[in-house]
C-alpha cells in the first residue's frame, strides 16, 4: 500500500509503568503522557521519532514472554529492531547501564545484539554493514 509512510508507534503491554519508564529513559526515550484512555496507555518517544505506547494492563503474575520463552512457537511480533549508527558504542552503553545482552550476532551485512526490558520484551540493536 503506497499510503503507508512509516511505523507510527509500537505497543507494549507492561506490568509496571515506573519500571518500564525508567528502563526506556536509559535508552534515551522521553516520557510524553499517561496514563490516559480506557486501557490505560502511557507514551514515550525517542528523539529519533520512535514512539512506544505502554499498555498498562499486563497480568502481574506473568513471568514469561509467551512468544519467546515457551516451547510452543506462537504467532506474533517477537521483537523490535532499533537501528544504530555505531554498534560498538551502543554495546558499550548497554553494558555500562548494567543491562544484560542476551545474544550477539554478526553477519556479512549486519551486526546486532539483543536485550530484554523489565517485561521480557526483546529489543534488538542493529547496524547494517554499510554504515
TrEMBL record:
Signal peptide: none
GO biological process: L-methylmalonyl-CoA metabolic process
Cross-referenced Gene3D superfamilies: 2,3-Dihydroxybiphenyl 1,2-Dioxygenase, domain 1
Source superkingdom: Bacteria
Keywords assigned: Metal-binding
One Pfam family matching this protein: Glyoxalase
Entry's Gene Ontology molecular function annotations: lactoylglutathione lyase activity; metal ion binding; methylmalonyl-CoA epimerase activity
Record domain VOC: where: 6-128
Name of the protein in its database record: Glyoxalase
Naturally occurring in which organism (per UniProt): Cycloclasticus pugetii
Amino acid at each position: 500500500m503506497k499510503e503507508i509512510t512509516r511505523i507510527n508507534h509500537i505497543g507494549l503491554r507492561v506490568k509496571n509503568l515506573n519500571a518500564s519508564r525508567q528502563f526506556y529513559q536509559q535508552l534515551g526515550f522521553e516520557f510524553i503522557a499517561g496514563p490516559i484512555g480506557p486501557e490505560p496507555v502511557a507514551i514515550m518517544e525517542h528523539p529519533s521519532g520512535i514512539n512506544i505506547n505502554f499498555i498498562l494492563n499486563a497480568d502481574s503474575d506473568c513471568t514469561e514472554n509467551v512468544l519467546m520463552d515457551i516451547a510452543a512457537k506462537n504467532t506474533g511480533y517477537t521483537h523490535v529492531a532499533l537501528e544504530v549508527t555505531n554498534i560498538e558504542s551502543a554495546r558499550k552503553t548497554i553494558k555500562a547501564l548494567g543491562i544484560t545482552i542476551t545474544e550477539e550476532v554478526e553477519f556479512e551485512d549486519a551486526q546486532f545484539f539483543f536485550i530484554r526490558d523489565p517485561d521480557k520484551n526483546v529489543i534488538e540493536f542493529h547496524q547494517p554493514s554499510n554504515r
